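Page 47, continued from p. 46.
Same chain as before, 690 aa.
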Amino acid sequence: MEEKTNKSVNDLLKTAKDRFQLASESESEIRKLALEDLEFRSGKQWPDEVKRDRELERRPCLTINRIPQFIRQVTNDQRQNRPSIKVNPVDDKADIETAKVLQGIIRHIEYNSNADIAYDSAFSSAVTHGFGYFRIITDYLSDDSFEQEILIKRIVNPFSVYFDPNHTEPDGSDAEWAFVFDVLSEEEFKQNYPKAKLSQMDDWRALGDGDGWVDRDTVRVAEYFYKEYEEIELVQMKDGTVFKATEIPQDVPQEFIKSKRKANVPSVKWCKTNGIEILEETKWLGTYIPIVPVLGDEINVNGKKTLEGIVRHAKDPQRMYNYWATSETEQIALAPKAPFIGAEGQFEGHEAKWKTANVKNHAYLEYKQKSFNGQMAPPPQRNVYEPAVQAITNARMQSSEDLKATTGIYDAALGARSNENSGVAIQRRNNQSQTANFHFVDNLSRAIRHTGRIIVDLIPKIYDSSRAVRIIGENDEQQIVLINQVFEDGGKLVEHKLSYGKYDVAISNGPSYATKRQEALASMLDLTRAYPQVAQFAGDLMIKNMDWPGADEIAERIKKTIPPDITMSEKDKQSIQIPPQVQQQLQQMGQMIEQLTKQLHGAQDQIEQKEREIQSKERIELAKIEAGMREKLIDVAAKDYLKSFEAEIAQLDQRQKQLEAETPFESESYESAEGMSPLMPQNPNNGVMQ
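Result:
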């Protein structure tokens, strides 16, 4: 058993060494260029050989470092417009109120762990040299507690992180492994791991780290995160629910099962190693590697990834700026004084004065007249030299413009006066500078969104028991809520079960709450000018948003002058405590109202019964009237029909007489045969309604 354990440890360390070697080799060029950018930003901007030669010649070597100014334009704008995490429900098992609780817990985590420091540090590294990192950890609430909390912490040195080079997502969500190195003193290492051995330099060279594992009195240790996969069988029931095959009882009928499939479920493992043994080991509760990268400008050339910050392409203009500033200083301040030119022997007897003529103000300078070939030599004269200061100054100004062009940040954003006159024009030029570098902020938003995804995945596993937690709203208002238990809120039973349902994360970019408050105050004041009545019912909110001492106290006093129906919420109205005597009076009044209500209902029933009786009598009378009217209509119709019928009979009689006159024989024989006329009915009243 011991041999098997040792073998598994050796296999784990070998895999870790191979992966570290892979990350070290794949990132070597990125790290080399990033380190040069970082050193350049810190002020190391002259080539070593040039600086050395100038120092030996006692020539100036000035560094007018303008790089930090451009970096801070990007980073400080981000600090004023911090991305915030929004939690949204995804499926029908999730609900909006629980999403708000999750969002409030995340804000509490950010506040409790000073997450803004972690975000700002990683973002500054990304803007400077192309990449930065921060991490998510878990820790116990206190030394005597078993409850844990989630924290977001910065990684001070981004070069101490080695990330899986095969990941493709910019937020690192698909990474399979990662390393984070730390340096401990030898004393601290022995105190934490008394039975562990100090590994030597040769033991870690297989990882490709030229500095070795042990450096003087310090020891490097590595945290190693890696994923392992377990193959399981998933079963989908006909109602849509999904279970693991091991969770379904064997007696479940097959007709209830819709389909089955295999799935690889990841789990994250963590260990700390000194290179030759495992110092600590555990399982990470989440499903993601809890190290979040923040990238700068990512470029892929022929399959090779390059990460750049704002310094990368600003180095040459900055070097030019330093060179021309140095040349300008050298030409003006340290240029050689104009020498005096005279004939040989003219300075005899007055050498001391002439040697100090360039550094002292003498009242007069004497010289000896000399003649050569019978002609007198002219007096000594200065050999005047005019340095090309104007050309050098123009070149320095051009290098300054090149700095602005390579960084995308111009005068309006730098606070310098330019050709923009109106505030709108200045703001638009400033927005152009922000747009030119918005990809840095966008990459930070992706990183923070992945952070929210990691925390949402962790919360049900860390906050897995019934407890009270603090949540923080967008306006920094704090509230204590109960989770994973049923409680009453406003007369309703509520339960925030964090492990029930699925939730997704979105990012909201915009000004911080303090900036929003200032904007809200300006909008309120504008609204008050157009509609003065607003101050009568919202004056306390206006004063509350003002940043000066005593604003909150004045807001509370103004709030007391506003009717309670406006200032009180429904929840506050329900929570008002009523005195016992008033409650008794209200109860008596309620009983009286109940009795009166019963009497009213009885009277209404009697009225409805009477109405039904009256309506029945009215229906009978209406039916009689309708029947009489129908009889009258029938009589009139019958009389009209009889008159019409008699007229037709008269016409037929007349026609018959005409026919008899024309053919008397046929008419007689016809009548004798039949006994009557075929045109005459036997009963003239047949078919007529009497």
